[in-house]
Amino acid sequence: MIIKVLDRTLDFLLFTVLAAMAAIVATNVFCRFILNFSLYWGDESAQALLVWLTFLGAAVAVRDRAHYTFDYLAQTSRGTLQFAVILFSRIVEIVAVVGLFYWSLEVAWGIRPWIMPAMEISRSYVYAAGPVGSAFMLLYAVRDLMRVLRERSLPQEIVPAA
Hints:
The protein has helices at 2-33, 42-63, 72-76, 79-110, 124-127, 129-153. It has 162 residues and is an all-alpha fold.
């Protein structure tokens, strides 16, 4: 139940960020080429939204297992070796996401005094996309690891010989 709410929240955030970015860019292009002036904050806000789009999109990719993986060994092996390879890949993914979360939190916190010139807000609001996206990624990666462990502990179906 909670995961479904988080899934919907993430999808809504991703849609909202993409729609806002498209609207800002389209409006700025219209203003620049038709009305002969630019929104002074347009480019800066579109760049900030692109950062959020990237990290939230990466979280959706982790959720959907859509990131690039080198899974040849997992596909060609069977039994315990296959389970070990899959388990190892999930653990490496979690360690990488924890590192990303930690360092992106460090950057977002450390950049607080830097103010964006056009929007006159702290760059921390942009760089907060790293920890937020990483938190979603971590949630989904741990959920996937739990799924792998749970499925391994369930009795395997008997497949008739061909």
